[in-house]
Specification:
Radius of gyration: 23 Å
Order of helices and strands: HEHEEEEEEEHEEEHE
Shape: elongated
Helix content: 25-40%
Structural class: alpha+beta
Mean pLDDT: 88
Number of domains: 2
Largest sheet: 4 strands, mixed
Number of helices: 4
Strand content: 25-35%
Low-confidence stretches: none
Distance between the termini: 45 Å
Strand order of the largest sheet: 3-7-8-12
Number of strands: 12
Oligomer: single chain
C-alpha cells in the first residue's frame, strides 16, 4: 500500500528522524537494531538499543556481624595502596541487596564519594559511615555508604525476583 502523496513529506521526515537518531546513538557507542514491521506497527517500537556497558558487581557483605544490605563498602584504595575499584574502568557498579540490584554510574559514585566522604581515618569499622577506614596492617581505604544513598544515585534498580 502506497503512502498518500499529501503525507509523503511528513512520513519521510519521520523516517529520516529515526536515521538521524540511529546515527547519533551509534556514534555514542550504542548498538542499534531496527524493529520488525510488526513491532513497529503493533508495539510502536522503532529501534532497539544496546550498548556495551562494563559492570563491576558488588555483593552484600558482612558489615558488622552478618550480611547487611543496608550498607555497602566502597573501596577507594586497595590493600596495596593503589586505586581501588571505585577508580577502575567499569561504567556501572551493580550493588546487590537482598531484594534488588542497584545500578550506579561509577563516575556518579566517584563524584558523590569525593564530595561527601570525610578524609578523616577511623580505626573502628563501625565508625566508617562516610569516613575512611583502613584495616590494621593494610594500605587500603574503604568507606561505608548507605544502600538508600545508592538508590538515590542509581540510574536503574531491578528487583531480583518478580512478585507473584
Amino acid at each position: 500500500m502506497g503512502i498518500n502523496k499529501r503525507y509523503a513529506k511528513s512520513y519521510k521526515y519521520g523516517r529520516d528522524a529515526e536515521k538521524r537518531f540511529k546515527e547519533l546513538a551509534e556514534k555514542q557507542g550504542w548498538l542499534i537494531r531496527k524493529a520488525s514491521e510488526d513491532e513497529d506497527m503493533y508495539d510502536h517500537i522503532d529501534l532497539f538499543m544496546t550498548k556495551p556497558i562494563s559492570v563491576d558487581v558488588k555483593s552484600t557483605k558482612k558489615i558488622f556481624t552478618d550480611k547487611d544490605d543496608n550498607y555497602h563498602w566502597v573501596e577507594i584504595l586497595n590493600v596495596k595502596g593503589k586505586l581501588g575499584w571505585l577508580y577502575g574502568k567499569a561504567d556501572v557498579i551493580a550493588f546487590e541487596t537482598i531484594k534488588y540490584w542497584i545500578f550506579v554510574s561509577r563516575l556518579k559514585l566517584v563524584e558523590f564519594i569525593e564530595k561527601n566522604i570525610s578524609k578523616e581515618f577511623v580505626t573502628n569499622k563501625g565508625d566508617a559511615l562516610y569516613r575512611l577506614y583502613r584495616r590494621k596492617g593494610r594500605k587500603d581505604a574503604v568507606t561505608l555508604i548507605k544502600s538508600m544513598e545508592l538508590m538515590m544515585l542509581s540510574d536503574y534498580v531491578s528487583e531480583k525476583a518478580l512478585k507473584s
